[in-house]
Amino acid sequence: MSIIPSAPPNDPTPDVEIRAAVAKLRKHVKHATDGPWVTSSVWSPRATCTSAVYSHAHPAGSVESEVVASGRIKSGYGGIREPWNAEYIALMQPDVGGALADLLDDLADGDDEGFVNPWALGLARQINGAKDGAE
User: Fold this and answer.
1) 18, 22, 23, 97 - which has most CB atoms within 10 Å?
2) pLDDT tens, 14-37?
3) Residue 113 neighbours by CB distance under 10 Å
4) Do the beta carbons of residue 126 and residue 120 sit within 8 Å?
5) Dist. CA 133–CA 94, nearest whole Å
6) What single-letter DSSP state applies at residue 115?
7) Residues 47, 73 contacting (CB under 8 angstroms)
8) What is the phi-psi region of residue 69: left when phi exceeds 0, alpha when psi lies from -120 to 50, beta otherwise?
9) Side-chain half-sphere of 28: how many Cα atoms within 13 Å?
10) In whole angstroms, what is the distance from residue 48 CA to residue 41 CA?
11) pLDDT digits over 35-90, tens only?
């Protein structure tokens, strides 16, 4: 299994694929609540290992985002034992997405010889929704 997914069926050039990922990231960064995001865990007997982002508006107009992980495995403190999905979502808050978009944009045209970094292309394909082996 390759880490770099296959090109989509219409076979765009690498710079087009990478710039599509850049546009997708920047759109989500623009509309997401500013970070940093915080996490909390909630135990629920009906929950699966899922996570959600809640944005709380405060009277002064500021907004705080909280990533809440829910799960069936209860810890001794009332939260869940493995809040890794929520921690990961909070880690990848909008400032990280913006920096990632800037990096990909810089790599889209390749180096001086036109070589496109395969890791940048693979990352762009993941962001664009390509699956390994997709045709």
Assistant:
1) 18
2) 999 999 999 999 998 888 777 777
3) 5
4) no
5) 30
6) P
7) no
8) beta
9) 17
10) 12
11) 777 666 655 555 555 555 555 555 555 556 666 665 555 555 555 555 666 677 77
